[in-house]
User: Fold this.
Amino acid sequence: MLQAVQDVASELLSVHSFQDVCLSVLDRCLLDDGRFEAGQFGRRQHSSASAGAVLNGVASIPCVPIQLQQHVRELGYLLLTSEGQLRGHDEHPGDGTTCWSLAQVLHGIAKSADDRRLRSANFTNGLKNLLALQNRLDGSWPLRDGDFNDPVFAFYPVLLFERLIRHRVPYTESVREPMRLTTKYLLHIASTATTGTTDAVLAVSALDRIFRLGRLNKESANRYLENKTRLISNLVDEAGALQISDKYVQNNLQPRWHSVTWTPILYACTRRWGGVQSSHNFQISARLIESFDRSEQGWHGPSHGKVSSWASSLALLNVHLLARDLLTSGLDVTEYKKLMRSMQARKRFDVVISFGGPDRGVAREIRDHLVSAGLRVFFDTDFRHDLLGEDLAILLQDIYFERSRFAIAVLSRSFLESDWAGNWEWKAVLARMNRQRQGYLLPYFLEHVEIPGLNPTIGYLSADKVSPREFADIVVRKVRTGPQP
Assistant:
């Protein structure tokens, strides 16, 4: 079975050996002196939060030799002092003990078959430090004592508590009340979070685990199931577009802190909700597979920088889970990818960008900032595989008229002279503008030109006042507060 899962995972990523990719990523994650690579490979700086991602991601995949798994968990264990404090980031060596990193590292250590680690002073005091961070009034989890809290921080404590309870280690009783308070908090988040958001997904996924433990009373179970049903029914909109996006969390205190919940790694949370052929799982797994960089043998995550340690570690775990689910479902990879492409052919876009050829550099800069903000953008060279062999007049009319929320037009003489931007795409934009009253076109003038059919009263921005990056930032705010599809 293990070899079959590896074969499917290799086929999903179009690589010779999934195991080799896992070992390559793990090797790059481990630095000297027991450190774990922080963020992008090549920084050669330690982060205990990244260590948690490695422990719970690539180091947990069955195709990684057990001796190597144990070695990595031992390195994770050595990040804890006897007082239960975590080794900090190399830039902030005295401040690594956040609830986010501590819960992940403790959970990774708890997966070990070595019971001595779980009964050690390091682990015991680490757990005490984690529990001391919880807000006992509402059950939330502040990042540090006196710092901010966020629903994301409640996820790994639940995973840790579940493992400790299931394995009946000495801490079962000590986590009972923190689990109850966390449950109350998660039920509140599931009930109040905007439907389809990352917060709702993480809250309901954590409640799934608590429910399977039998730790929900009848009233709480009914609330959980009601919220779960509501969430699943709204993970995609009426047009079939996925409603989950990356979530960025940060504070402005010292030391500064930030984290990202990247959409493709949520497959581990949603995979049991409707199976591999459900619309939301198709789209999440499509992002997971398509974002694999074969040349770098890893994942960048939501950034456009180098391949990332935490993103690659968690992405590999999700590919393994997807491969296992495909085997169970009896669906082969070729058929799965065919179905995936068919579904993607009808996906919607937050923004489409129309421009003349000489203005491609400006358009690309705008695209890069929109994508890094988590928006779904149609940019011609990103979808060459969709455009190849198609009647472009028909396809682009469909994308601009039916499948986009907003259209950016980079306006210049080059735009007017373009056979596509100034002709077919512009006709589709005008037709869409005639159909809806709410703002659709977002004009960005590179120079003063008269654009046929453009109402002079429509608000616009120009390059002499606003840079492409500033324009993109304004578009992000517009999309997030503008008309929904």
Remarks:
- DSSP finds 21 helices and nine strands in the chain.
- The chain has a mean pLDDT of 88.
- The first helix runs from residue 2 to 13.
